[in-house]
Structure formats: C-alpha cells, structure tokens
Design a protein that fits this description.
By secondary structure, the protein is an alpha/beta fold. 35% of the residues lie in helices and 20% in strands. Strands 7, 8, 9, 10, 11, 14, 15, 16 and 18 form a 9-stranded mixed sheet that branches. A 6-stranded mixed sheet has the order 1-6-5-2-4-3, with helices on both faces. Strands 12-13-17 form a 3-stranded mixed sheet. α9 links the parallel β10 and β11.
Length: 478
C-alpha cells in the first residue's frame, strides 16, 4: 500500500472530501442535482455520503464541528474509512485522493490510516489470490499543510503493521521458531536494526531453564532473538527494552487445551513477538531518535513424551526455581528468562507484550489491552495517552503486593499459576519477580487476534501494540 502527498489532483480522480457541515463540498460536484442531493443528505444528518459520477466516485465525510480533533473523532474517521473500503473495492478503484476541505491534516491522516489498515489482506495460501486481491493500491493526501515526514511516518507504520499481521497469520506449519527469527532478521536488514539470534546450544549454555522447559515437547529448537536500534543521538540515556512472547503454537502442552475456540487459533500466541518486531521496523524506518532493545524468546508448546509436566520444578535463568502446576501457563516461563536477561542492559524501562491470559480477555474483551506494572506514574500516563491516541486503549489493573502471595509455592520459590481469581494480575506478578527495573506488562490476549473484521482491524492478527508503542516512542521526552 502506497501513501503519498500530492499538491494538486485532477478533478477526474476518485476523491474523499472531509469537512464540517458548512464546508464547500459543492465546489467538487458537477451538477445542481448532485448539490441538491448532498444538501438533503447533510440536512438528514448523514455523515457518510457517496456521489457516483460514473467516471469517478466522490466520498464525503461530514464532521461534527463540536468534536473537532479528539482521539475519538480520529478513531471514527479510521472506522469510516474502513466502512467505505467496500465501495472502493466494488468500483475497482486503484488510487484515491483524500482532501480535508477545512485544512485539518490530522483528520486526513487518520482517514488514510484507517483506509490503509482496512485494506490489509493475507492471501498467501489462496489459489485465486489475484482475483481476491483488493483493487486499492495508492492513497494520496492533498493537504498543503501536512508535512512530508508525517506522510513518511504513516507509511512506515502501516508497513510495520502489515508485516506484523503477516507474521501472526502465518500458520505454524510454515513458521517455527527458527523461521520466525529468520523473518525478524530480514525485517532488520530492510529497516536498519540489528538482530542476533541465539541458537539452542547458546540458550543451553546460558541456562535459560524456562525457555528450554517449554521447548522439551517440541521437535524444533528454540531461539532467542536480540534486536537493537541505537541511533547516534538518542533521546534516552538508558535503553527501553521490549520483550515479546514468541510461542509459535500453543497446544497447552500436557495441560492440553480444548480445540474448539481455544487451540484452533493458537498460531497467534506469538503476537507479542511479532509486535516487537513490528515496532522495531517502524522506529528504524522512521529513524526515531530512541535507543531500543528487543528480546524475543521463541518456541512452540507441545505434549511430546519428553514434555515438561505439572509438578516439575524448573531452574530459571536467574536461578529462581518454579513449580509448574499448569503447562499451559508457558508464556510466563519463557518471558521470565527474557526479563532476567534484560537486567544486563540497565534499562530505563522494560515493556513486555504477550497473549498471556484468558483472564485478561475475559475481563475486557477485545476492546483494549490489560496493563499493569511498577513504572512511575508519568510513564504510565504517557503510555495510556498513546493508547488513547491510536485507540489501542490500556486498562490498568491493580498491581498490589498481596497478589504475589498467590504464586508462592510450597516446594519452590514460585509456582507458575496463582489460583481461581485475578489470573491476569498473578501472571503479571510472576513476571515482575524477574525484574529489577521499571516494568510494564501488556496482556494483549483480547485484541491480538479477532475472528471477524472490526473496522480497520482485519480478521486474524491485528498487530495490536505496534501503533501504540510507535506513538509512545515518537513522543518520548528526553
């Protein structure tokens, strides 16, 4: 998907006109009959109006002048664009120009973002993919005030979300841990960030017991990928570390999941890892002045004869012993090793992204991300603000010390599950045990993978977390 700025455009082009009720939409119309129709629709409080001029389509988006440019209005514009995509495809439109009559670049960019993200498709395994492919190839933004860097930034972000969704939607039959690491390396070469992949022998030498335990049931070796983007003049003196859960496929291990509505879409259990790679791609392409490090532990979780079992005690990378009571609580096992490994970087902040608990999805559904942590209030507020900006909203859960009591074991330092209640929080407290730095945990289990389109969030992997963290890093203060 190509997004570019244009200074002017021919009146024959397919066009989206954005403006308030009193805007001069009529100047773009060719007949009194069209103007009369437009007036009637606006007076009927219609916000989306389409005028078919046969040689081109005119899509009119009417804004409420009272709402101005709030984050909610920007989200409405993204979803309005997604709604119009079906008409764009129906008319086989290849190129479309977005014009904000009142000059709001922010609104034009939001509409372009929604249209571009809604146009994503994963067609790799269709025999007739050429027939199924969307006609839309290019989005043009005709707004004199929009800066080139804003267009470039949006292009890089959309590309990153596409790549993230591709990784998540790829079936496990074609993406094991080594193939994931190879895909991340390819992204690094394209965007300009470094990737080092630790193989099983190196992981064993480091004694990453959590990652190795989960991998015991797999015929494929684990990987541990280390990503870094470090520009010469980074704003942050201490790196920000992003950790992504890379469970390639999760059967639940010996604590086997039921297939229906559970195991059947567990190729998405590496959504956190994919999001970390996507953030790095966008940040490096946009050349943001931030120093970031990424850690991606990866393996699948299967019930082979040598698989780790409930009752086992595992020695983790930092020496902590963990009593395993449920092998389906495997994500926290591999993340714990990565979080311990992150200590060596003396980070200013560590954020993990993981499809970690069904409890998080049960709590807030797919409408946002469950988050918790011990970072200072200013960091949390900035993350929440970025979540609101892009509508990947954060629901902050309590992180009280008492929740840590629920993961105390009778025979080891910790047990890997809490109890009946507060499952997403006890999982977060488990992870916190392995940290000694400001820490924030994103449980993306609800929004990471959806079964039908939700506006510009297409069915399958959504790439949630990429847009939020890109916004946060772009606005990072020194």
């Amino acid at each position: 998907m190509k997004i570019r700025k244009v200074e002017d455009f021919p009146m024959k082009d397919n066009v989206v006109l954005i403006g308030a009720k009193g805007s001069h939409f009529a100047e773009f119309l060719s007949s009194d009959e069209e103007r009369k129709f437009l007036k009637q629709r606006i007076e009927s409080n219609k916000t989306q109006i389409t005028i078919n001029q046969f040689s081109r389509q005119v899509f009119i988006q009417v804004l409420d002048p009272e709402k101005k440019t709030s984050s909610k209005v920007m989200e409405e514009l993204r979803n309005a664009a997604a709604k119009n995509l079906s008409a764009v495809k129906f008319h086989d439109i290849k190129k479309i120009t977005i014009v904000h009559i009142d000059g709001s670049c922010e609104a034009a960019l939001a509409y372009a973002e929604g249209l571009a993200l809604a146009n994503y498709q994963f067609l790799k395994y269709f025999k007739d993919k050429d027939k199924k492919k969307s006609s839309l190839e290019e989005i043009r933004i005709a707004c004199p005030l929009v800066e080139d860097k804003c267009i470039d930034s949006l292009q890089h972000l959309v590309d990153a979300v596409y790549k993230t969704r591709d990784l998540i939607n790829e079936p496990a039959s074609h993406l094991n841990s080594e193939q994931l690491a190879s895909a991340v390396e390819k992204m690094g070469k394209e965007a300009g960030f470094s990737v080092e992949v630790l193989n099983k022998k190196k992981i064993e030498s480091l004694k990453m017991g959590g990652l190795l335990a989960v991998n015991l049931g797999s015929i494929d070796p684990p990987t541990f990928s280390i990503l870094e983007y470090k520009p010469k003049e980074a704003k942050n003196k201490k790196p920000i570390v992003l950790v992504g859960k890379g469970i390639i496929f999760d059967t639940g291990g010996l604590s086997l999941k039921p297939t229906a509505d559970s195991m059947d879409y567990m190729k998405c259990d590496m959504s956190g890892a994919a999001a970390v790679a996507g953030v790095f791609y966008a940040v490096a392409k946009a050349q943001l002045p931030v120093h970031i490090i990424g850690l991606i532990p990866a393996t699948d979780n299967r019930p082979d004869g040598n698989a780790y079992a409930p009752g086992d005690v595992i020695h983790m990378y930092d020496g902590t012993t963990v009593e395993v009571l449920n092998t389906d609580a495997e994500g926290r096992m591999i993340l714990a090793d990565a979080l311990s490994y992150a200590k060596q970087y003396k980070p200013g902040l560590v954020i993990d992204l993981a499809t970690l608990t069904g409890a998080a999805a049960a709590s807030i559904g797919s409408y946002g991300i469950v988050c918790m942590g011990n970072a200072d209030r200013k960091v949390m507020e900035k993350l929440i603000e970025s979540g609101n900006n892009v509508y990947e909203r954060l629901a902050e859960f309590p992180f009280w010390d008492e929740y840590a009591d629920l993961i105390k074991s009778d025979i080891a330092d910790l047990k890997n599950i809490g109890g009946k209640y507060a499952g997403s929080i006890t999982a977060g407290k488990f992870l916190e045990h392995f940290t000694d730095y400001p820490f924030v945990h994103f449980d993306i289990a609800g929004p990471a993978f959806i079964k039908k389109n939700d506006g510009y969030r297409t069915a399958g992997g959504t790439g949630v977390g990429v847009r939020l963290l890109f916004n946060y890093l772009k606005n990072l203060e020194s």
